[in-house]
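Pinned message: reference record for Claudin
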Amino acid sequence: MASGGLQLLGFVLAFLGWIGIIISTAMPQWKMASYAGDNIVTAQALYEGLWMSCAMQSTGQIQCKVYDSLLKLESSLQATRALMVAAILLGLVAVFVSVTGMKCMKCMEDDQVKKMRMAVFGGVIFIIAGLAALVATSWYGNRVARAFYDPFTPVNTRFEFGSALFIGWAAASLAMLGGSFLCCSCPRRETSYPPSRGYPKNAPSTGKDYV
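Predicted structure (tokens):
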């Protein structure tokens, strides 16, 4: 029962992490304009994401524009896109594999060892998906930080971390943590001992002597 509860907890955490990765990928707030300079502009807030850039007016109206051409984007942004999409696809595969290996599911009940190995394999895929998302968000955040502290970057074009980055970091951590819990349900090898041989019982004496 303890391993089944740990397995269920790992799947729930990993699934929530996968949902968070999807949300982080779709959000446009990967970086937001910084108003650290003297000329503070409060009329609008600028956001940039993996797929579009948005501007929010002081009235609350948001206008977004999808990037026109994929080839005109920076190679680092394209790589970040690819890593996040790969993390989503890997997470989808991990969901199906892990569900197959869950103890509460009816499929593959005949072979419990293979069933538990499926759960472990799903956990490994979740860990890989979390690592891909963690690399993508950390790489993007490093680029934002380097551009912010670059003295040659104009003050009015500096950006800070957006909320999508923090969601991505938390989601990647949940996916890896949940995948680790799933891997803890790996079946242990049981040592097989040869069956013990019973000692022959002495035949009861009948009191007759045979020559």
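Pinned by admin. Summary line: The CA atoms of residues 150 and 191 lie 61 Å apart.
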